[in-house]
Amino acid sequence: MLFLANWFWGFAAVAVPVFWLCPARLRLAWLLIASLVFQWHFAGAAGMAPVLGLGALTWAAGLSGQRWRGWSAAGVVIALLVAALAYYKYSAFLLASLASVGAAIAVDTPGWWTTWHGPAVPLGISFFTFEYVHYLYEVRVHGRAPVRGPLHFAVFALFFPTLAAGPIKRFPEFVPQLDRLARPDWATAWRSIGRIIRGLFKKICIADLLVEVIQPLEATPHYTAPLVLLLAVLQGWRIYYDFSGYTDMAIGLAGTLNLTVPENFNRPYGSTSLQEFWRRWHMSLSTWIRDYVYIPLGGNRTRRSLNLLAAMVLCGLWHGAAWNFAAWGLFHGLGLAAESGLRRVAPALFAESLAGRLFGWAVCYAYVSFGWLIFFYPLETVGRMTRALLVWS
Amino acid sequence: MRSRSALRTTATVVVHLLMLAAVLLLWNSDAPQFIYVAF
C-alpha cells in the first residue's frame, strides 16, 4: 500500500514536521532515521539487508581505487548488483524458461527448476540497484567525486519518498542538497502539499476508477476489435495516472523536505513520435537506460538499431520477469529502430506542419496504446486480441 | 493585476480542496497497489 497505507500518513505526519522543527545539524540524521523506519515497516528485516548490504558495498567501492585481477572494485560491485537483481527478481523466471527450453529439446532438467518460486523480492530493488550502478559508473567512468560521508550516501540510498518506486535519482543532483538541508518556505511547502493532493487524486479518483471499468471488460469471454481498442486506451490512461500519481506524491513528499528529485513525466501522450514519447515517459528510467546501456553499447555511433533493440528489451525486462515485458520492450525497440530508419529515408513523414504533427501523434498514440496490451496481458491473450483487431471481429 | 493573481490563488486552493474531498470520499484501504511498486 505504501503511500496509501494509513500507517504511512501517521509516519509522514511525524517525519515531516520533526524535520522542519529539528536543528539544522540534525536534519540529515533525522532523514536517515525516518527512511530506516519506513524501510523497516514496509520491507521488514529481510528486506533491509539487500539495500543496506549492497549500499555499503557500493559506497566502499566508490571510495576504493583497488583492483582485483584486472577488475576495479566498482566493476566487481556493479557485477554483484546485477547478480543480486538477477537472483532476487529473475532467477525463478530464468530457471522456468530454461526448463521449458530443455523440455522442448528433450533435455532433462532438475524438477525444482519449474517449482522454485525464488526469494522474496526486496522492496524497491529495481530502483536502488539502478541508483547504485549509476553511482559507481559516474564515479569510475566519468570521474565524478565519490560521496565521502556515509550518512550522505545512506540518505541517497534510502530516501523514503523515492525508495519504493523512484523517481531514480542522480547523486550529483541529490547529494549536494543534503549539505544545505533547510525548512522549506511556505510557497514550497504549499506547492509540495498541492502536488501530493494531485498525486492522490490521480491514483484514487482516476487510476483506481479506471480499474473498476477495465476489470469487467477483461472478463468478457470473447474479445471484439472495439473492446480491444477500448482496453488498450483505458490501460494506457490507467498506468499513466497510477504511476504519475505515485511520482507526484514522491516529488511532493521530497518537496516538503525541501529536496528536489527528478521528474518522470512530461505529457507523454502528446508525443508526435516514439522518440519523443520516450523522452517524456518515465524519464528517470529512460535517461538511465540511455546513459548506462544504450550509449555504452555504442549509441548512435555503431549498430544503432541493434543497440536500440537491446536497450529496450532490457527496459522491458526491468519491469518484470515475464516474456510479455520482454516483448513489450522489443515492440518499442522495433518501433524506435523503424522510426529512426524512416527519419533518414522519408523525412517528410516527420514534417513540423500541423498535419505532419497530427499524423505523427496518431501513429505514436496508436503504437504506444497497442503496446500497453503487450505490457498488461500474457502473450497468448495478446495474440487473441491482435486476431480480433486484424479481422475486425 | 493583483486581483487576478488573488483569483487564481483562490481557484487553485478551491480545486485542491475539491480534489482532497474526492480523495477522502473515495478512500479505500484495500485500493490496488501502485503498479510500479511491484517492479
Notes on the structure:
The complex is a heterodimer of chains A (393) and B (39). Chain A is mainly α and 393 residues long. Helices cover 72% and strands 1% of the residues of chain A. Chain A is built from 16 helices and two strands. A two-stranded antiparallel sheet of chain A has the order 1-2. Chain A is globular. By secondary structure, chain B is mainly alpha-helical. Chain B contains one helix and no strands. Chain B is elongated and about 50 Å long. The model of chain B has no long low-confidence stretch (mean pLDDT 88). Chains A and B meet through helix 9 and helix 10 of A and helix 1 of B.
Largest sheet of chain B: none
Shape of chain B: elongated
Q: What's the number of helices of chain B?
A: 1
Largest beta sheet: strand ordering of chain A: 1-2
SSE order of chain A, one letter for each helix or strand: HHEEHHHHHHHHHHHHHH
Number of β-strand runs of chain B = 0
- What is Rg of chain B? 16 Å
Helical content band of chain A: over 70%
State the main characteristics.
heterodimer, A: 393 residues, mainly alpha, two-stranded antiparallel sheet, 2 strands, B: 39 residues, 1 helix, 0% strand
Provide a short characterization of the protein structure.
By secondary structure, chain A is mostly helical. Chain A has helices at residues 6-21, 27-63, 73-104, 112-115, 125-140, 150-158, 160-163, 171-174, 186-218, 225-256, 274-280, 283-297, 304-318, 323-345, 354-376, 379-390; strands at residues 67-68, 71-72.
